[in-house]
Amino acid sequence: MRKAARSGVGCPNGECEQHGRHDAGNVVLHGFSKVKGGRRRRYRCTSCSKTFGATTGTPYKRLQYSKSRFDRVAALSVEGVNKSAIARLEGLSWNTVARWLELAAALARRFNAKHLRGHELIELQLDEMNTFLQSRKQQTWVFASIDVWSRVWPATLVGARTSRNTGRFVRSIADTSHGGGTPLITTDGFKFYAPTIRHVFGVGCVLAQVIKKIKRNRVVRVGTKLIVGTEWRLSDALRESEDSTKLNTAFIERLNLTIRQGCAYLRRRSPCHARRKQTLEDHLELFRTVYNFVRPHSALRFGKVTRTPAMQAGLAQKRFNFRDIFTARYAAARFAIVRFRTVAYHEEPERVRCAA
């Protein structure tokens, strides 16, 4: 009789009736397979009779190097190291680094969609950063947001500063919450924020703008303007806030700096501009996962414990690592594989998506 596999292993076959279930007891051990680094465990589903490996559905599948090396490449990327430097440090080709980061971003996007939901929005701050694509030939913007109380980075968007993109961005923030509460929202003077936030969050929120007057690249005056809500509701929101005593955008500005430091594409005076919008979106998705679930936040230190934003918001019980994210059991379903043609190191690889 076959020995049952450990709990948490589910069948990755999308046509299996037990697909997506990790406690059905239909997965049993099925020996080992030989690989370059030794051997790896294999499993068999008793429902569909399909066999699969322990790395099926993860970026580690058919990996010719160690898992720790893959994790190290992802870690270097979110520390602001560009792909060419990573390739030199790790002794890999540029195309290999690009392909690994593409796979890591695909799993990070799925991880965020699954886990970054259901928290309470208390005090939101929204802002945009300017950047370039295609070696400064095309200007674009990165929309970012932060829930000040938990320091969670709930959503981001790359695109032009239009009414449509602003609506998509604000709705994506609202989708991550559990739908309750009336948050205090602070933005800059961008004209599309007011009608969009009023439409998405309704009159239950408190919306205020911090308007800065800049002269010769210096802030000479800062003013505030209440858009939605009343003065007494604003005073109550500021009094109940654990971080803000007056209206400000200091927390989202600090997040912007963190994003620029962790993304080689967004560094100031950098030659490493993303050549495609999708490349920048992928990196930001990976970095958002690391920021929320992997990296402890220095402002969330309680005694000897320093929490991640996800722990503070109640979305996680522990600090995750790259292995937890890339081998999440729900993500064992098939996902798009990215193939690259061989190109020079300074070119952007041509991608062709196909079914796994």
Automatic annotation (TrEMBL):
Domain of life from the UniProt record: Bacteria
Cited InterPro entries: Transposase_27_IS1
Question: Could you identify this protein by its name?
Answer: Uncharacterized protein
